[in-house]
Structures are given as structure tokens and as C-alpha cells.
């Protein structure tokens, strides 16, 4: 670490830290009397589909605590500062979702009930480099953005719809950070590193699809098309990778499998459009 770092005022990551500090809010500022508009069966399904996101909030918080020390060791002080607000954001999301479970009187799935969650988080946490870790977080944050964004769009007047709006604001800062941090390294990035990141993207997408396949009935019961969500997510990731300048390499084999699974699911559910 540096005793007296040069925290340049024009460093965009430093300004994201300042935004992160100003953007803090507490769970008790939120109106918890808003209606959930779930019946008993929908509440059970919602508790299930929320589980990967819920676990994701906690994994992000824990991962941030690890990467903080790596930023310090690399003398990346603005990133070191920024990540503290990230950690507090994820802690708040975790706290709020815990409160949602209590309110619904439901429990999240256990890891053994959805093994893909374990695989997903293992894939994220096995990263040794802070760059890989941030890339994984970028993918996870894009997933969170699409998940919360869908509730904001489909159920704007419900408790979870309103909560989603608050959380999305935080997630936007997280994405901006990952983009800045990865973006400033892209020009110098060895092909081997790019390949490693794109391989991680493919792995995470495949696991997300498997997770979704296990939860598709619950998603349907809550009132959304999980595969439409995945399509939007894939498009988001594709755009982001393109914008970052990482190779838009085809992942034909993985996608073919995923599209096949989607076709089966849509057929089973009788969904023909889109
Ligand atoms: Fe979060
Ligand atoms: Fe996040």
C-alpha cells in the first residue's frame, strides 16, 4: 500500500468513489408497507427465483473484501477506495433481500436444491486476478440489472418493483467501475487474458442458463419469461464486451446448446412469440 498516494482529482474511479459515498442510503428509508401483490403460490416461486440474486449480493460483498487487499497491494488506491462503497452497497442489498424473505415468510433455496448456484459462485471466486474478478462482477451486475430491471418494468407499483429501482441505481455505479477498470487495461491486455475473460463469460452464461432451466416454472408462475430475460442479458453482455474492445469471439457451441434448451422450454410452456 501507499502511505501518501496521488489521488488525482481527474481519476474517473475516484469520482465514482465520491458518487458512491453520496449515493448511500439505508434500508429503513424504504417504504416497507408497499404491497407485494403476490399470492401464496407466487410468493413461493418468487422466493425461489430470487435465490441466485440473493446469493449473488452476498458473494459480491465477500469478493469485494478479498479484492480490496489486492488493489492496495497493486497501489491502485482509487480502486481501493471505490470498492469500500461497493461493499456497503452489496451489504445493503443483501440486508434488504433478507427483509423481503421475512416479509414474504419464505426461505431461499438451499445450495443443494440448486447446485448451479454453487457452480456459478465457485466459478466467480476461483479467479486469482483482480481483473478476472471484476469481469465476473460485471457479468453478475448485468444479470442483476436485467433481473431488477424486469421487475421495475413489469411490476412498477409493487414493493419489489420499487425496491428494484433503488438497487439498480447502485448497480449502475458498479458497472461503471468495472468498465473503467477493465477498459483502461484493454489496450495492453495480452490475448491470453482476453481469452480467459471470454471463457469465463461463456462458463457463467452456460451456468445461468442451466439455473434458469431449473427455475423456469417458478419464473412463469411469478409472471415473467426467464428466457426473454436471458436474451436481453446476452445482448447486454455482447454490447458491453464490444464497447470494452474485448474480442467479440463467437461462442457458437455454448449458444447452440442454450438455444436448444430454450426451444424445449418454450415449447413446454406453450410460448410461441419472440
Ligand atoms: Fe447488488
Ligand atoms: Fe453489484
UniProtKB/TrEMBL annotation:
InterPro entries linked: Ferritin-like_SF, RNR-like
GO molecular function terms attached to this record: oxidoreductase activity
CDD domains: Ferritin_like (cd00657)
Protein name (record): Ferritin-like domain-containing protein
Amino acid at each position: 500500500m501507499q502511505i501518501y498516494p496521488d489521488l488525482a482529482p481527474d481519476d474517473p474511479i475516484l469520482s465514482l468513489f465520491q458518487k458512491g459515498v453520496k449515493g448511500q442510503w439505508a434500508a429503513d428509508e424504504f417504504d416497507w408497507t408497499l404491497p407485494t401483490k403476490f399470492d401464496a403460490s407466487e410468493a413461493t416461486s418468487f422466493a425461489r427465483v430470487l435465490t441466485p440474486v440473493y446469493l449473488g449480493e452476498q458473494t459480491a460483498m465477500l469478493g469485494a473484501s478479498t479484492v480490496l487487499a489486492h488493489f492496495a497491494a497493486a497501489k491502485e488506491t482509487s480502486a481501493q477506495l471505490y470498492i469500500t462503497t461497493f461493499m456497503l452497497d452489496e451489504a445493503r442489498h443483501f440486508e434488504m433481500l433478507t427483509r423481503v424473505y421475512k416479509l414474504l415468510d419464505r426461505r431461499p433455496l438451499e445450495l443443494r436444491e440448486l447446485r448451479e448456484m454453487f457452480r456459478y459462485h465457485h466459478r466467480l471466486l476461483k479467479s486469482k486476478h483482480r481483473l478476472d474478478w471484476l469481469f465476473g462482477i460485471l457479468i453478475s451486475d448485468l444479470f442483476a440489472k436485467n433481473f431488477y430491471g424486469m421487475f421495475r418494468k413489469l411490476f412498477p407499483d409493487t414493493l419489489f418493483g420499487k425496491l428494484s429501482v433503488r438497487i439498480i441505481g447502485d448497480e449502475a455505479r458498479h458497472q461503471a467501475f468495472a468498465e473503467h477498470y477493465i477498459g483502461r487495461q484493454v489496450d495492453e491486455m495480452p490475448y491470453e487474458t482476453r481469452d480467459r475473460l471470454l471463457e469465463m463469460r461463456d462458463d457463467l452464461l452456460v451456468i445461468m442458463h442451466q439455473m434458469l432451466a431449473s427455475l423456469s416454472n417458478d419464473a412463469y408462475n411469478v409472471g415473467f419469461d426467464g428466457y426473454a430475460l436471458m436474451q436481453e442479458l446476452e445482448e447486454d453482455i455482447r454490447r458491453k464486451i464490444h464497447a470494452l474492445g474485448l474480442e467479440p469471439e463467437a461462442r457458437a457451441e455454448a449458444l447452440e446448446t442454450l438455444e436448444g434448451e430454450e426451444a424445449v422450454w418454450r415449447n413446454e410452456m406453450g410460448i410461441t412469440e419472440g
